[in-house]
Structure formats: structure tokens, C-alpha cells
Amino acid sequence: MSSEASGNDDWVAVAVLGRPRGNRGEVTAISLSGKPERFARLRQVCLECASLEGASLEGAEPSSREVEEVWEHDGELVFKFRGVDSISDAEKLRGAEVRVPRAERIQLDPGEYFHSDLIGCEVRERASGRVVGKVTNFEEYGGPPLLEIDGGRVLIPFVKAICVDIRPEEKLIQVDFPEGLEDLNAA
Hints:
Number of helices: 3
CATH architecture of the largest domain: Beta Barrel
Strand content: 35-45%
CATH superfamily of the largest domain: RimM
Number of strands: 12
Strand order of the largest sheet: 1-2-5-4-3-6
Mean pLDDT: 84
CATH topology of the largest domain: Elongation Factor Tu (Ef-tu), domain 3
Helix content: under 10%
Distance between the termini: 29 Å
CATH class of the largest domain: Mainly Beta
Low-confidence stretches: 1-8, 51-60
Shape: elongated
Order of helices and strands: EEEEEHEHEEEEEEH
């Protein structure tokens, strides 16, 4: 599973920048990719202001940035960009999405999916063919990831026992609901 998100078809977000770290312009990041090794290869990225409250990337225009280094520190990603050399420089990047060209996405193992490929998939109950809705978001809270359907109207655990047929290329996910799951969502 990989949680790379996308705002358009050409670029995918792989991380969201957070607070400055240290005094040399380093900035923390939340990974949107389940594969930490993907960050070691990054050299050139596009930073784009996300629709996050408090995002402050200068003028909200996408900007190309050269990545000097990315590493993990205490379970947190840390980025160092060329030309970002102070705490105040790093603060300007807070909330920006780190994006890479879609063609540069990492290869996934069989049975793994990019979150961006699941968004927009129609969810159908396998037995009846009934349309449950469309995936509008993908959330991870520490347990199994959840597919958010129609803006949160329904939450479906993204596990093989429930999501039994996943075809992002067809924008389709078929589910077998365990007894009581739909009632739980209705409450």
C-alpha cells in the first residue's frame, strides 16, 4: 500500500512538509508513501501549496526545488533543499506538498496500490452489484486504513477480507461487507 496523493494526472504528492528542524533550513515532512526508500532517490521535486489551512508557500505557486538530502530522524522524515538555509526559509515551506512526476512513481509489489489511484473508484457490493459510492479519501489512524466513501458517509476498512476485488485501472473496488458494518456506518 502506498499513500501517494495527487492533485492532477501528471504529478503525485509523496510528502507534506511540516515544521522547520534545526537551524540550517531543514524541514520535517509527513510521508504519503509507505516506502521510505523512495525518498533517497529524490533530487528534483515540485513544491505546491496544498489546500491545507495555514499553508504558506510563497504565493501558492508551484516551485521546482533541488533536494540536497532526505533522511529519517526519530521516525520522522527530514528534507534539506538547496537554497533553504535558515529557519525562516524553512517556515515558508510549511504545508507544501512534495510532488514528483507520475512517471517517476516507485514500482509497487503485487497487491499494493497508490492512494491516488483508489480515489474516485466506485465501490460496489460484490454479491448484489449495489453501488455503495465513490472513494473520496483514504485515511490511516493506526489501525487498518479506511476508504472514505462519498465524503465520509461510509468508512470501509481497506483489508483483503472486505475489499475483495480491487481494480484501480477500471476505477472499481468490490466489497464483501461483514455483518453489521453498514449499520455501524449508519449510526
